[in-house]
Amino acid sequence: MDTTNFIRMMPKIELHAHLNGSLCTKSIEELCEELYGVNSNEKVLLSKELVFDGGNLDQCFLKFRFMHELTATKKGLQLATELAIRDFAKDNVIYLELRTTPKKNSEMSKEEYVKNVLEAIERTMKIESIHVSLLLSIDRSKSVAEAEETVNIALQLKNTYKDIISGIDFSGNPKLGNFMHFIPVLEKARKNDLKLALHCAEIHNPAEIDQMIKFGMERCGHGTFLSELQLNEIYRRNIAIECCLTSNVKCSTVKCYDDHHFKHIFNDKKAPVILCTDDCGVFDTTLSNEFVLAKNTFNLTKNDLLQLSLNAVEFAFVHEHFKHDLKQRIRHYFKIQTEPES
Ligand code: 6MZ
Fold first, then answer.
1. Residue ID of nearest Cα to ligand 1 atom 7
2. pLDDT 10s digit of each residue in the chain, 342 long?
3. What DSSP element (H or E) covers 184?
4. What spacing in Å lies between the alpha carbon of 6 and ligand 1's midpoint?
5. Which of 9, 79, 201, 207 is most buried, by CB atoms within 10 Å?
6. 299: alpha, beta or left, given left = phi > 0 and alpha = psi -120 to 50?
């Protein structure tokens, strides 16, 4: 089996995927057809709307407006959730942590938004062989009151959906909002057993990065601009770094793949690394593609691929017994695929 196929068939773990960024062109077309009944010419135009060919973070954030329109109805949101999960399952992702920002609109309150996503997750898990957890995202460009509402919804629904709701993500345009203002809300989440995945060091902002590391988190999203001192602290605190190669290069926070911080952090064992897609629809990628990219750019061995997969399990927001199952499935795949056929 060649490496690309080996990676494609490999049971994978995705821990950093924004729902509205994870709709591929085909899913967007299916959504548009279902919601508006658009014809094929219109579909081509819509696909062009979706994919982000490259630019800066601000330009990338404009893309989400289009997806947010599509998921502003119960029908659109549920279908989008199903389609996103289906695509990860097709790529042999066996455990997915999806994250999304609860949004209020004329049809739904924020709580109803979350309930619709949860319903779609439960339904899709019965059809696809994938386990899905949900992180609720705090958008740092919005108010602290909105963040508080999001944490309260997570806490309220956690009892009913205890195997699905697992934590809080802190995301949104990193140039906006002040992290310090969100500390009391994030502290409340942590005190109530919600795990934290914070977008940290996606841009060069040393003071904020120090504040975030000091506050603590289970996983650091991106970690692009961590200094050596900050990396040492990340290591000491056993925080994993979610590396999103295509996302960083397309948003120009990293110049090219060869220069990606993955190389230093993974090769020099600076901190546990996890490979993730971020927004596989917007960046036109898959988790398999990210693994192939990493393997080819950084000359990874099969052992490295195994290590990256096991890192992801170790830092997943799930119970120990489920981690054990996931690790067994991954190890089994590597064992049977690397042994010579009899
Ligand atoms: C920070 C990002 C992001 O929540 O509507 N999001 N936040 N950095 C990134 N790097 C490119 N990519 C996506 O999914 C889309 C939302 O996720 C966050 C942004 O807040 C974006 O609006 P949901 O499902």
1. 172
2. 799 999 999 999 999 999 999 999 889 888 888 888 876 667 667 766 677 888 999 999 998 988 999 999 999 999 999 999 999 999 999 999 999 999 999 999 999 999 999 999 999 999 999 999 999 999 999 999 999 999 999 999 999 998 899 999 999 999 999 999 999 999 999 999 999 999 999 999 999 999 999 999 999 999 999 999 999 999 999 999 999 999 999 999 999 999 999 999 999 999 999 999 999 999 999 999 999 999 999 999 999 999 999 999 999 999 999 999 999 999 999 999 876 654
3. helix 183-191
4. 30
5. 201
6. left
Secondary element (H or E) of residue 18:
strand 12-18
Residue by residue, DSSP assigns 296-311 as: HHHT--HHHHHHHHHH
Pocket probe mutation, ligand 1, options 18, 134, 252, max atoms within 8 Å of Cβ: 18
Residue whose CA is at the smallest distance from ligand 1 atom 15: 20
- What does the alpha-carbon distance between residue 271 and residue 280 come to, in Å, rounded to a whole number? 24
> Using CA atoms, how far apart are residues 26 and 70, in angstroms rounded to an integer?
14
Nearest to 23 by CA among 290, 293, 284, 291: 284
Contact 167, 317 (CB under 8 A): yes
Straight-line distance from the first to the last Cα atom of the chain, in angstroms, rounded to the nearest whole number: 15
Q: Residues 309, 329: contact at Cβ < 8 Å?
A: no
Q: How many Cβ atoms from other residues are within 10 Å of residue 74's Cβ?
A: 16
pTM for the whole structure: 0.97
C-beta separation of 292 from 257 below 8 A: no
Choosing from 57, 136, 171, 208 the residue with most ligand 1 atoms within 8 A of its CB, the one to mutate for a pocket test is 171
Question: 176 by DSSP, 3-state: which?
Answer: coil
- Report DSSP state, residue 256: -
